[in-house]
Amino acid sequence: MSALQTLAQAAGIAYVAGLNLYATVGIIGLAARLGWIGALPSSLSGLSSWWVIGIALVLMTVEFLVSFIPVIASIWDTLHSLIRPPAAAVLAAAIAWHGDPAFVLIAALLGGSLAVMTYTTKLGLHYVIDASPEPISNGVMSIAELGLVTTIAITLWQYPFLTLTFALFVLVLLIAMIRPIWRTLCQVFAGQWVPRHGFLQDARTSDRLGRREDD
Q: What does the DSSP 8-state code read for residue 199?
């Protein structure tokens, strides 16, 4: 395995760990145990333990259920700022563990930095979605997150460069979405939002009455 391929796998595992640490550990361990992916590096062999898989999947389920409670979901993610990035850096370093010590350090720094980006992006999305009191949007976000984590965690080992490129594209897209969504929600709750002209809708009744009074 080349150094660049190892680095891509380290970055990829840190990426998904920043999104959902427990799902990452549980899915990779289960995939290795069932033979869906090749053998894991010896430094990550512990992930395929049934004890590790079981605990990780239980915590993943708890996190999934918590995500349906808008405010609690944001609190949960905020508290995990102390867990996800450091754990992601450890997982990234473990992939490169048998390489040069400087290379291991580079993998840890890269993985930790990428995990911070994915974690803060997810946290920002949760804060935006929590502006809506209904739990459906939170549930949709959690299901999409699990789908993304599963896809990356499984394909990363066979197609590391392609998977990492796809993951970074999704990250950039999510970062670009946060501000427009937040702005639209603020306008909706302030009663200032109306569809664009492309929807060909007339002005609201209150707006027409206001213009008549001005005349």
A: G
Specify the DSSP class assigned to residue 149.
H
Calpha distance 85→17 (Å, rounded): 8
Q: Among 77-81, 82-86, 188-192, which range has the highest average pLDDT?
A: 82-86
Own/partner contacts of 155-163, CB < 8 Å, gap of 24 or more, are 156/9, 156/12, 156/13, 157/9, 157/37, 157/38, 158/37, 158/38, 160/5, 160/8, 160/9, 160/12, 161/4, 161/5, 161/8, 163/8, 163/12
The two three-digit tokens of residue 26, written as one number: 């549980």
Give the up-direction half-sphere exposure of residue 161: CA atoms within 13 A in the CB hemisphere: 5
What's the pLDDT tens digit per position in 47-64?
999 999 999 999 999 999
Nearest-angstrom CA–CA distance, 44 and 65? 28
Q: What is the DSSP string of 7-71?
A: HHHHHHHHHHHHH-HHHHHHHHHHHHHHTSS-PPPGGGGGGG-HHHHHHHHHHHHHHHHHTTSHH
Q: CA 132 to CA 100: how far, in whole Å? A: 49
- Helices of type H across 50-135: 50-66, 70-79, 84-95, 101-129
pTM: 0.79
Q: Helix, strand or coil for residue 158?
A: coil
**Of 44 and 187, more confident:** 44
Identify the pLDDT of residue 133: 61
Distance CA 86, CA 82 (A): 7
Annotated domain spans of the chain: 3-214
- Taking only Cα atoms into account, the Rg of the chain, rounded to an integer number of angstroms, comes to 21
